[in-house]
Amino acid sequence: MASNISRETDPLIALSDLVGEKIEEDTEQLVKLLTLDVTEGHANIPIVAIEGMGGIGKTTLAKKVYNDPTIQQNFEHLIWVCVSKEIKQVDLVKNVIRVVGGDCGAAEKKSELVPMLQQLIQGKKFFLVLDDIWAESEQVWHDHLRVPMSSGAPGSRVLITRRDGEVAMRMRAIHTHKVNGLTDEDGWSLLIKQVASNGVENEFQDLKDIGMQIVKKCNGLPLAIKSIGGVLCTKGDWLTVLRSNVWSMDGLPGDVHHVFYLSYEDLSPPLKQCFIFCFLFPEDFELSKKDLIFMWLAEGFLQDKDNFWELGNEYYTELLWRNLLEVTGSTVDQVQCKMHDLLWSFARHLGKDENCVLWEGHVLSRYEGSLKVRRLSIEGSKVNTKVIKNEKELRTILLRDKVEVALGDLCKVFSNLRILDLNWSNFSSLPDSFCDLVHLRYLDVSGSNITNLPNSIRNLKYLVYLNIEFCYDLSHVPCSIINLRELKLLNTYYSGVKAIPSGLYKLDKLVEL
Question: Cα torsion at 143, 145, 147, 152 (round to 10°)?
């Protein structure tokens, strides 16, 4: 039996998300349907859909089904993948191949990956969850997954979650389960789980009338109720929250609830910046606590540089308990998180003046105000970077998915960079102009094809973070690295580096090696 934790989401469920009898009834109904031993009349794998608006609890229900003992025992392979709008189809296929025990090697083409998946799944009984599938991404099922997955054993099943019922129709789902909002009582129970340390409502009984009115304003959306719970934890006056003008404000994106703005407004100015920064990563991307804190430090969001880790951890923890970020993987150490797609859209809306995201040459979020673009995230293999050549004030560049850009030109044009993230890129060397980035604080070349770091890296006197993890072709670190007196983290794990310079002990600010 196998299960999957993909790089985007995982099927683990937080007990604080579960309230009421309805989810138990829905889970039982779906589990029974998915394990019913009847396949006659279905030429393809039976598909069951969970449908509902954003933030209503579709993923929570899917996780409850996935983790049900009957499901766990009934299938040989359990596969969970998140299908966001911009996911690359071959990447999703690769995820599925890895989950069922395969090795993609250097395969990148559909013609290589699809037969590989078909061979792996042949005659195996599987349960595949496609979480958050969109009209823009459903083609991955038709073009890449449907045929190879059809070679699975009888009894195999697919479960999808989706906001729009048309996708389920086009995928020929045999059953669609519609998720409705929580009842007021269940909404109150969920709210209590957010605001009460022990989850018992007795201490809040005198606030129930006001609390129920707040719950009604959340329209039965669990995500909205959890978000407002974070606000109520910091504001002693619940009546002020109930009477806030934010509930009736205009100008928010159509799928963004007013609760999110209430929660955002309750943040301190630097924490607002930390929240907005997270949208530079793809939807449903799994974020690392450590990387986030060092990026926040590099951007100047953490003012206390001597105690930056404590402050960054405090900010990270606050975003979690306010439900503006959610834990993925183990809930014990909380070192990985993601941003719900509704909150991702909200953060993108808030950060549109200073942040730009390019996807295959298309601007997803662009400069529309009086401020200059400060942060750029480029996703996709071929991107038109000419659209941002005049943005001289860029402080952050994140390159993803082996982007084909002239790195030397970028370094020359954007001399004020503080963050340069090149992880898993196909660059084999750094250009000469790289070491002119005298303001650089954060450099990540992990997983890249880098073969050497130039001696002139000594010029980066403000560098605090250097990640060369998984740089298999990098055999050594230049001795000049001992001049980086501000360096706090040097990650050489799983790289080709056999030894480090002997003078590294001189870096008295180094907290991790």
Answer: 180
Q: Which residue has the higher pLDDT, 90 or 445?
A: 445
* Strand arrangement, sheet containing 326-327: 287-288, 336-338, 326-327
Q: Residue 47: enclosing H or E segment and its boundaries?
A: strand 47-51
Q: Would you call 359 helix, strand, or coil by DSSP? A: strand
Please state, in angstroms and rounded to a whole number, the distance separating the CA atoms of residues 12 and 223: 17
pLDDT band at 111 (very low <50, low <70, confident <90, very high): confident
Q: Please count the residues of the chain.
A: 513
DSSP state of 324: S
* Distance from C-alpha of 157 to C-alpha of 35, rounded to nearest angstrom: 8
Whether 363 contacts 356, CB under 8 Å: yes
Give residue 282's Cα distance to chain centre.
Answer: 6
CATH 3.40.50.300 corresponds to the domain 15-178: yes
Q: CA 392 → CA 174, 404, 412, 414, distances in Å?
A: 54, 20, 10, 6
Least confident of 8-12, 291-295, 316-320, 340-344: 8-12
Give the start-end residues of each E strand in 73-156. 77-82, 126-131
Q: Which DSSP state fits 43? A: S
CA dist 119 and 102 (Å) reads: 10
CB crowding 289-318: b at 16 or more within 10 Å, else e: bbbbbbbbbbbebbeeeeebbebbeebbeb
- Placement of tokens 């069922």 in the chain: 100
Is pTM beyond 0.70 here?
Answer: yes
Largest CA distance in the chain: 72
**Pairwise CA distance, residues 117 & 6, whole Å:** 16
- For 314-354, list the strands marked E by DSSP: 326-327, 336-338
Could you state, in order of their start, the residue ranges of all structural domains in the chain?
15-178, 184-265, 269-344
% of the chain at pLDDT higher than 90 = 35
